[in-house]
Amino acid sequence: MGLSANLRHIGALTRRNLMRIKEDPESMFDAVLMPIVFTVLFVYVFGGAMFAGDQDKYKQFMIPGLLGQTGMTLALAVGTGLNSDFQTGVMDRFRTLPIGRASVLLAKIAAETLRALLSSAILLTFAFLLGFELKTGVPELLAAVGLSLVFGMSIVWISMLLGMSLKSAQAVQGVSMLVLMPMQFGSSIFAPTDTMPGWLQAFTKVNPLSQLADASRSLLNGEGPVAHPVMIVLIWSAAATAIFAPLAVARFRKRV
């Protein structure tokens, strides 16, 4: 099957995924509301306890980190939806169609990228309304968003593999939360790591979300090194994609 045919299949399946969102707008609640809820909770509930109660300073610290983890949070939900597609027989229909098997998964990544872009735009718009200051420029802002998307889409492959390997959507959701929570809170997203105990600091240093948060912070605030954390995130994303993308495609072909 040629490249042009695969691209047509991916485009058609991406439109299908977007049409499903149109028919079920409640499925967008996490992308639309989560950035607002997280920002309000952490700025106004925990912000007063950080940086000697300087909420403006905490906004500059937390919001870039929150931007970095947006893609991952949405990506982990993909596996739950994919598992439901198998349970409801949607994948049985795809089995009868003359389409490339990988195009089904690539279309999910394309649709998820658009969801993550929307979520990032909502987060940044709300952050600016709350007084967040972009201290660099638009190119650095776009670079931070792009880095978050690259990282998040590498996580999609892991999520899809979980969705095809576990028996139920509830199991996928549970395992995803077990992965997400330690990575989120055992990182530099919400609090400086120098206040953490030594064993937790060791974990944050190898946690790619810490590197992503630090890179986003440097890109938006213009402070601290940029090249090193960006390179670590790109290497980690490339490695995750190289390992889990073939495994996910192989698992999908086996199941359909």
From TrEMBL:
It is a multi-pass membrane protein. InterPro entries: ABC2_TM (IPR013525), ABC2_TM_bact-type (IPR047817), ABC_2_transport (IPR000412), Nod_factor_ABC_transporter (IPR051784). It comes from the Bacteria. Residues 26-255 form the ABC transmembrane type-2 domain. Its main location: membrane. GO terms for cellular component: ATP-binding cassette (ABC) transporter complex. The chain crosses the membrane at residues 28-49, 61-84, 105-129, 141-162, 174-191, 226-250. Keywords: Antibiotic resistance, Cell membrane, Membrane, Transmembrane, Transmembrane helix, Transport. GO terms for biological process: response to antibiotic. It comes from Streptomyces rubellomurinus (strain ATCC 31215). The keyword Membrane applies. Pfam families: ABC2_membrane. Belongs to the ABC-2 integral membrane protein family. This is Transport permease protein. GO terms for molecular function: ABC-type transporter activity. It is found in: Cell membrane; Membrane.
